[in-house]
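[job 0412] stage=complex_fold ligand=phosphoric acid mono(formamide)ester status=START
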Amino acid sequence: MTRHLISIDDLDRAGIERILDRAQSFAEVSGREIKKVPALRGRTVINLFYEASTRTSSSFELAAKRLSADVVNVRSAGSSVDKGESLRDTVQTLSAYDPAAIVIRSPHAGAAQLVARWTEASVINAGDGKHEHPTQALLDVFALRQRLGSVDGLSVWIVGDVLHSRVARSNILAFGRMGARVTVCGPPTLLPPQIEALGCAATPSLDGVDTADVVYVLRMQHERMRESFVPSLREYADRYQIDLRRLGPEQLLMHAGPVNRGVELSADATDSPRALIGEQVKAGVAVRMAVLYELLAGGRMLELAA
Ligand code: CP
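[job 0412] stage=complex_fold status=DONE, emitting structure tokens
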């Protein structure tokens, strides 16, 4: 594994499997009453979030704390970013604390790559604009593997606002690398040109979604839309919303959250036992522990019995 995790492209299949296997052992730690191991004792992890987050920020914080790291959480709102401090100056300021890792979320594609140039710390991309969200994809593969045993040979349909979705880009790569066949589906205005170059099929029609083993629904990313991409949310929902009528009894449903209930997903589908949404959230802690461990302590023996 490289020093940073910017993209799923940083990992080959063996690298993904190594993280998933490590996450499996950390999932066991998370089931204990004392959910802590000493692997990163004395190391510092800085979570630097320039965009809203509930799941990623909380699970990175928990993951670092369960590895016994010292954790500093910086949100752009309320920090000196509000006074006009640049990303570069912010990173150089925080680097003075000698962090082992900086976890960065930014609305700008390429931000994590830039941060990696400005610090000696390992950099983990927690979502950069429309580009990638690699730890989301890793936890999605982990959650699916936990449920089904393997991802190899599965048909995964990724449905919705593909154009603005970093989750879609990372998941096309991760599911593909793990042996799944990936199809993306959405309104033509929300399908990026040449998306097939990432290794997936693309279609504007939900015809055939009944053949999927897994339907992965994407959030409508209103915050990234500068123009109108669908006639109205009601028409979008009529045509593309996944509800229990569109979902077969054997099909699994995934969504990275937060869900726009009644837009891309119906409430009954969101809350159904076919949905892995809660399992995805839970997987976030173990997978992010594994990523931190592999980047910062990968060569060392792990004392699970803290
Ligand atoms: N899935 C995800 O990235 O959620 P948050 O925006 O809440 O972190």
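The first strand starts at residue 44 and ends at 49.
[job 0412] exit 0
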